């Protein structure tokens, strides 16, 4: 059994090309997932996982070109992780940028009344909302002063004061 160490760890594609490809795909996917799709109802379903797998597979060829070695994969993955960390750091230190990259909380219930227009914006059904409210041990909408969908898809509930 022969192991070709150069094939495993050698670099056959320019590291700069890998960085440029990784950067381009990262920002394309970043725009899709953080700006266009924005948020979901606080959970990942089977369809979400399927989308992630398909997107990853589709993006792989665009990012990778013809690389074959582990070292080249490390460069590509490192590029993507660095951009993700940098944007998180930047949005932490530049609050104006955070407001662009993450949606503001969306009011779903106001004084016990469901705001249907806002529910439609997020394609959220009444049964999904009621399910999330039950997680907060709420069974009657009249108990709620306000309920928001946060930028991460979680539901925040402010109960009426007794």
How would you describe the overall organization of this protein?
It is a single chain. This protein is of the alpha+beta class. It folds into two domains: 5-101, no CATH class; 106-159, CRO Repressor (2-Layer Sandwich), CATH 3.30.240.20. It is 57% helix and 11% strand. A four-stranded antiparallel β-sheet has the order 2-1-3-4. A hairpin with a 2-residue loop joins β1 (106-110) and β2 (113-114). α2 (15-36) runs antiparallel to α3 (46-64), α2 (15-36) crosses α4 and α4 (70-93) crosses α5. It is elongated and about 75 Å long. The chain starts with a helix and ends with a strand. The mean pLDDT is 81. It is a multi-pass membrane protein. Its main location: membrane. It holds the Pfam family DUF421.
Strand order of the largest sheet: 2-1-3-4
Question: So how many helices?
Answer: 7
Please state the CA-atom Rg, rounded to the nearest Å.
Answer: 22 Å
Strand content: 5-15%
Shape: elongated
Helix fraction, binned, reads: 55-70%
Pfam family, one: DUF421
Protein name: YetF C-terminal domain-containing protein
Subcellular location: Cell membrane
Membrane topology: Multi-pass membrane protein
Brief sketch in words of this structure:
The protein has 162 residues and is α+β, with helices and mostly antiparallel strands.
